[in-house]
Write a structure and sequence with these properties.
The complex is a heterodimer of chains A (376) and B (397). Chain A is of the alpha/beta class and 376 residues long. Chain A is built from 15 helices and 14 strands. In chain B, the strands form two sheets. In chain B, strands 1, 2, 3, 4, 5, 14, 15 and 16 form an eight-stranded mixed sheet that branches. An eight-stranded parallel sheet of chain B has the order 6-7-8-9-10-11-12-13. Chain B has 15 helices and 16 strands. Classes of the chains: A alpha/beta (376), B alpha/beta (397). The interface between A and B is large, with 71 and 77 residues.
Amino acid sequence: MIKNGIITDISTTRSLSIDHSDVKVFDAHGNYLMPGIIDIHTDAMDVEINPRSSADFPINVAFSELERRMCGTGITTVYHSLHLGYRDAEFMLKSKYSRKQVFEEVHQASKQSTMIHNKIHLRYEISGTDDYSMCFELVEKGCVDLFSFMDHTPGQGQYPLEKFIAMVQKRGITREQAMAEIETRVKRSRIKQVQINDLTRFLLSRNIAIASHDDDSIEKVESNHANGINICEFPINMETAKRATDLNMSVVGGASNILRGGSTGGNLNVRDAIEQGYMNTLCSDYYPPAILHSVFMLYQQGVLSLPHAVNLATLNAAKAVNIHNITGSIEIGKVADIILIQYSNGFPTVLKTIASGNISSNYSLKQQVYELSNQV
Amino acid sequence: MNDLIINNACIVTPAEVIKNGSVVVVNGKIVEVSDSTKTNDSPNFQRIDAGGKYLLPGIIDLHTDAIDLEICPRPGADFPIEVAFRELEKRMCGVGITTVFHSMHLGSREYEKELRSKYSRMDVFEQVFAACNKHSLINNKIHLRYESTGVDEYDQCIELVKRGYISFFSFMDHTPTEELLTGEKLKAFAARYRLSEDQAIAEIKARMARPGISKQKKSELIRFLKEKNIPIASHDDRTTDAVEENHQTGISISEFPITMEVAKKATELNMDSIGGAANVLRGGSNIGNLKVQDAVGQRIINILCSDYYPPAILHSIFILHKNNILSLPESVNIATLNPAKAAKIDRLKGSIEKGKEADLLLVDTSNSVPMLYTTIVGGNISGEYSLKQTSVYECYN
């Protein structure tokens, strides 16, 4: 039972009854009722604004269309991951919008009437030295709810040198050109360790959760942990994921990896990491529907029980970003962020998505297939 | 089921807007459109109070490249085809598209190279077609985009049509011309593929040297398609001569004409002329071609498709109306009735008229962007959407 958007009662007996006429009653027909998905890393927003290089759409249009898609995939809280300081990503988008404009307009849109809860995850590339002060500014303005440090310099993280060369060669360029590209990128200046520390302290003072991206070694994880970073996002190998787990950090993997059955870049297999207990949170990364499908795949393949699989996408994600007191599970006193799932033929379908007690979307399959021709 | 009474709607018919109107749906078909409130005590009817919102016919999208991108959102990152299909039709439903012609290429080495998919093109056609015929949210059809340098795939085209997979066909020819070999165009090409100018020239020349199917083969294919009553389009027409030639060979649709002259010529020849709604929503072409809003205003583009951004059509309908380019019925027609006619499904679809299938949308335009509340397909309420109120319990102040 839900009142004013809060869960007030849960019963294991067949049905709750109520005498008020202003209460909406619905029969779930035995389908799964689970907490709404919390997605702490999805790159979909920039793609929605710029689906093709240099083809920008109005940000408010992209925002409302994207949250509608998210809602349809069972995500009730999303942390739109927006990069800052990342020249290579900016080059790919060729957007007319400045990064600042994207942050501000997305933030503004998230404060209007919406279908789901929209938050911002600032992904800061540490070679973006010119954008360092903007990180502070955006946090001061309340535009940031989750922060991550990234370093995409070739030679570490997800790009060991040979892999980077192979990747860019697929675009048809020569090895020499690839080496020149590496040199340019390696030569870029980065913010100093002391600046990282200052920024980290500032974020912690604002209660903003901090993640580190693409960690590739035990040492990196240990140093991050010592600095107050509590989330290890996309660890590259099992040792790193294990170390982060030992240190009680949240360890985040991409659900796309599970749905596809492995990494496109040949990195850590997320399913294996979960099976071994070294990964406790799923995010959608670059394919929003992936989380829900992955939850049911992990369950169907016997990797986890259904409640544990669901936790990866809900309660654990809520804990990582410190909102687990308000949402992330179906418990009395929590906000009613709930989804209704029909699971048949190994295939989960989102029927209803409820955010703060509002039925934000409701889908139902049609029965007939009409013949589409004038010939009939 | 699929019996509905919708009251208090602002109904957009092909010719007019009916305020406080009502629509009665029985067994998935529209049986009455009226300017007064309807009551019926039968418990079979589901009742919807539109609250004064617009009631539009569902959008018919003849060209959207979204399916391949949904299957392969990043190069080499393939997802299961049925997952991609289901997720995409849910998105389409959410943007008001009730009949989609998934545009799938065949014979294009460049598109295949960009996707680097593990699936063969035949796999994609077969699995998408199988999914189209299961229970679904909207009506899903296939538009085969055939690149005419795909000499090896010619027989597959015939095979796919024979199997009944194809509801719309287009000829594409992305072979570059001499002008790409110099100046700004060369620079842009090199930058796009991150090649040096020499490498770019070599690549362009290699593409120019590729043989295409013969004129005779093309006419045979066209004859075959016409026998099967499949509508045929030509893609990216560059010159009025090309349009005239297409018209003579029996092609009835010009898709994305590059210039106003070409669009004008197609219209004069009584062909359908399709523009991308993404172009309207963005306020122009991102590669410097024809501005669709202007062409629509001059009545030389009569159909909008979503091209590469599915939400664009619904937004464009209201942009064209707001910018006084078209009346609301006219701007709705270019997304519904006109594409239905081009695809030869207008006997059953494309407008709110007695006897047609109840593919309907409820849209509110009181905010800065149009908000779709309900998508009805064949009388089934496939998707319903609403905005939450920010409450005191809102944890995310």
